[in-house]
Model the fold of this input.
Amino acid sequence: MPCSIHSFQFKTNSLKDETLKKPGIKDRLEDLFTGIYDAYRFILRFLKQAVRPPFDFQEIIRQCYEIGYKSLPLITLTGFVTGIVFTKQSRPSLVVFGATSWLPSLIAIAMVRALAPLVTALICAGKVGSNIGAELGSMKVTEQIDAMEVSAARPFKFLVVTRIIASTFMIPVLAMYCAFVGLLGSFLNVHQNEKTSFVTFFADAFEQISFLDLGTSLVKAFSFGFTIGVVACYKGFNAAQGTQGVGKAANTSVVISMFLIFIEELVIVQVSNWIRYF
Amino acid sequence: MENQHSIDRTQRVITIRGLYKSFGALKVLQGIDLDVFKGENVVVLGRSGTGKSVLIKIIAGLLPPDKGRVDVLGKEVDTISEDELRALRLKLGFSFQSSALYDSMSIRENLEFPMIRNLPKATRSEVDKMVKETLDAVGLLDKIDRMPAELSGGQRKRIGIARTLMLKPEIMLYDEPTAGLDPVTCIEINNLINEVQERYNTSAIIITHDLACAKATGDRIVMLLEGKVAKGGTFEEVFTSDDPEVKNFYNYNFIE
Done:
């Protein structure tokens, strides 16, 4: 078939023009709302499947181990350093007023109310979210999820429901652990400078912590855990074809999770303050 | 090994009528009509991008059709409930082009997985026995505790087929079973497809563009061109055709 190099060049150029055409605002908005609707249907599907037997307890426990236990070293380090640094940074301001004895309660309020759930969620959004996004994305593009589907193995239940449940329940546990480790770090610094005993430090620390603080912190952590699980599973389970899709699924899992975590943090703090001062 | 088995021409296991499927502006299937009879191996041939894989994904309920009707074992795939689709899929075996083995599981776990998920009351010894029998049937019993990454392409294909056999399917769907394999392994896979047909009395759709595979495994050949069935019949009927498009296809397959 006659085909000159010029006509070939012309064809590839016109193809480039079409494929590289940037989507307009209308297309972007359409994509955004379609994505939100798809995510809503994904969450509904999760809720429906989560309460419907059979339950994959063994896989849920395995995922709890993967998400919870394997995140412990990173959470330990981060929580401990956060506690020490926050104490060191707060001391000079309190010294001016001669109020260094307030350090334990200040650190406890900061760690329990805000820092522990937020730091844990951000760490887990990076570690757990990218891991789930890449793992499910890779399974999707190599047709492993389709293979489970055609063998009637209920991949949504096995892969998605188990991971979201594990993430929702493990992040609060890790957040409480992070708060405890942070307080330990803070204690070491306070003990070194003010010679405060372990018992005195923790008695002072918990004196200012109310059930509302603990409750709000747990609600936040549950909410963050659910968000990380849903976003990562949604992105991985719907990864586009090819290895590029796997990278994109992992990356967008982290970015969207972090964005939503900050939004949730704002909303929950606002609501808890309304309750506190009602 | 030539395919010699009985076909029940009175019983259709798959019926496709007026099937259309597009992806955006790309029209893939444009009015496919196809019947598969009980015990029959139908080979679907065609160039890349003619919608062969899309066709079997629609049959397995992995993709919805835009228009048309697909009946599998008397059930219309697109309209049945999720539970009915699951029950139907237990009777379907799907061998993927990439084998699609679960790479985080050993070969034993890969084979156990569909059985454990679908037959929770099966005992440990029943599952073990079934796994060993099936691996023996594909000649890879010695690889039972290996990981998928440790196997060759041909071995992975065999394991992929073995996994589908764990639930004793009535219909097998093979997507490019010999793609990317050397000629000797291709012959082994062709023989395995015929063995599966004889041992499990399955009907099958085999998607390929390998004429040797088509000749060795197909009772009937269906050729897809531009999303439509261009030619159908036995291997000899199709490849003695004067249709220039059909001729063009087999001239490039370098087969005597």
